[in-house]
Amino acid sequence: MPKIRAAAVAGPTATPTRTNSHNNSIGSGADAILRTLVNSLGKKAVAAIFGKDVRTIDRWLKSPTRLDMDNERLLRDSFQIYSLIEEADDAHVARAWFLGMNPNLGDHSPIEVLAEGRAREVVAAARVFVNGA
Hints:
Blueprint: H1 7-10, H2 18-26, H3 30-41, H4 43-50, H5 54-62, H6 69-88, H7 91-99, H8 110-115, H9 119-130
Helix pairs in contact: 2-6, 3-4, 3-6, 4-5, 6-7, 6-9
């Protein structure tokens, strides 16, 4: 499966920016974004972000359906954050960053905080990570 990236916009050696990750999140269809997150983070992690079980994620993958506004927003927010980390480093680091405790999130994982609907806090923590602060 091809990886969704904004390389054409950013250029091959560009530093990740807020604009690149934002363009990634709005320039792709929800189905492609879901598949990328599942391939990168795993079904169980994606299910945890949405507060759903793995069977629901399987159902979304098998028969593309239009997500409701809240779920689509969470999907795009999660992908924007994933893109920011992945562009700055690589897919393995992005996955580890999502799964691990984060001192900028009160030692909660980004997945837990996203599941609580606090995407702005997670994107701020991602920017701290990317900027090396």
